[in-house]
DNA sequence: TACAAACTCTGTACAGCGTACAATTCTGGA
DNA sequence: TCCAGAATTGTACGCTGTACAGAGTTTGTA
């Protein structure tokens, strides 16, 4: 009955699975942020001794990497393979989906940035994005650079956004976020930061989906502006 | 002799200063990355009991915030106030200076992203960038959005870059970085990631200054492309 | 059917972490 | 001179990741 295909070795049956551990870890992460995720808390959540987890993951960093990559794998799989030729729409859908997935688990974002963006699912996402840009007609090298530019923008935005989301509570919607930020911005001294104070209404919306799309649009415009036949600019 | 202006209260003289503590902390950060920075290690570095530091900083997170903002304050102060009207050049200089400062202390980058981008020096930097864009002729709201877009790009790039820099050793130059990455990329399966494999030469240079400037150029192009008279695009 | 090898899990332990608390020492102002 | 207040230390608590030894369970093989 080798369910996984490779169960032909001695030893008692496993009481857990990687899946259960990752789910428990994500639950803790969502409930209390990155610092609520400890080997001991995960073990307690699963009713097991702390060191039992070392059967499944060699160390905490390894667990965290798996957790982060697992999360990246949850980005809608079909988001990047559109049938039509609306590549800007496809990139936009991908950017929205990736941001949404990450912001649904803000505690995972610092872990992602600390663990690196490698891992199979990260690679697969990069490949899919790159493939889309090439199929859109961009020269291969330009597409490669552009895909990194886009990833960079998404992760930078999400990082700044997640950094100010308190753990344990559901993310408020854009209007509430902006209103709260607007209130806080009322406290900044207009004599020392006149420009910032003058545009406080815009600054308050930095974390909104609308600003996110504004930036993405500028980005894609800029990518199209570049000399299409060359791989380097200026 | 009120040196700091506010020394008119009883108690023994302080054996340390915020400056010394921040310097020691940065030394440890540079030597061993974020996990080498502990209250106890900083105290040991200064030859003092761990809890002595609590006279100067209320908690470790407070210390880290101060450290990060102090680092941001080290970005060349004049970088953003050019006399000429070459605003793209000024933004580029700023982007290069900020990246250089952060990558000189890669261990600080995860701390920055975990602590948020507020703090006086972060605010001042944002104000200066915003001011530059407004003086460049961008409408106020567009300038505000653009400044966030630029910051987002810089921090995203730096985050991905710093995540793969090992702590304790000086950062190799671009050529060495790219060569090392190129070698590692040779190991990725071309059948599962054909596009990535095909552009491995470009991918290897993702962390280079050249790619950084390519992306920044696209970004600024895109900002200029947008409808200049309106504050929202779509 | 017995056994040895392989495997999973637990109990215990260690070094390190952030920091709270009480005691000690030092200082300037009244 | 004395006291109020500030700086520092020693001690301690609960937490962390994880190494190690042992016990229990399962398997293929003899």
From TrEMBL, chains A, B:
Keywords attached to this entry: DNA-binding, Transcription, Transcription regulation
Biological process annotations from GO: negative regulation of DNA-templated transcription
Residue intervals of the HTH tetR-type domain: 15-75
Protein name per UniProt: TetR family transcriptional regulator
Keyword Amino-acid biosynthesis included in the entry's annotation: no
Matching PROSITE patterns: HTH_TETR_2
Gene3D superfamilies tied to this protein: Homeodomain-like (1.10.10.60), Tetracycline Repressor, domain 2 (1.10.357.10)
One Gene Ontology term of the molecular function aspect: DNA-binding transcription factor activity
InterPro entries: Homeodomain-like_sf, HTH-type_TetR-like_transc_reg, HTH_TetR, Repressor_TetR_C, Tet_transcr_reg_TetR-rel_C_sf
Any one Pfam family match given in the protein's UniProt record, by short name: TetR_C_1
DNA-binding region (UniProt annotation): 38-57
């Amino acid at each position: 009955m080798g369910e996984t295909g490779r169960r032909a070795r001695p030893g008692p049956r496993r009481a857990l699975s990687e899946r259960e551990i990752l789910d428990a870890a994500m639950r803790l992460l969502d409930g209390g942020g990155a610092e609520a995720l400890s080997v001991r808390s995960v073990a307690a959540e699963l009713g097991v001794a702390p060191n039992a987890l070392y059967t499944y993951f060699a160390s905490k960093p390894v667990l965290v990497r798996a957790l982060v990559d697992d999360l990246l794998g949850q980005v809608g799989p079909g988001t990047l393979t559109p049938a039509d030729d609306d590549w800007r729409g496809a990139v936009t859908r991908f950017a929205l989906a990736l941001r949404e997935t990450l912001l649904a688990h803000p505690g995972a974002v610092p872990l992602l940035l600390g663990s690196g963006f490698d891992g199979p699912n990260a690679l697969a996402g990069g490949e899919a994005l790159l493939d889309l840009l090439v199929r859109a007609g961009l020269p291969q090298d330009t597409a490669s650079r552009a895909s990194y530019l886009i990833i960079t923008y998404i992760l930078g935005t999400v990082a700044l956004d997640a950094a100010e989301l308190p753990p344990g509570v559901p993310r408020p919607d854009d209007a509430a976020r902006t209103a709260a930020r607007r209130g806080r911005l009322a406290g900044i001294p207009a004599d020392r930061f006149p420009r910032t104070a003058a545009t406080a209404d815009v600054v308050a919306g930095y974390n909104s989906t609308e600003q996110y799309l504004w930036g993405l649009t500028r980005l894609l415009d800029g990518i199209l502006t570049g000399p299409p036949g060359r791989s380097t600019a200026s």
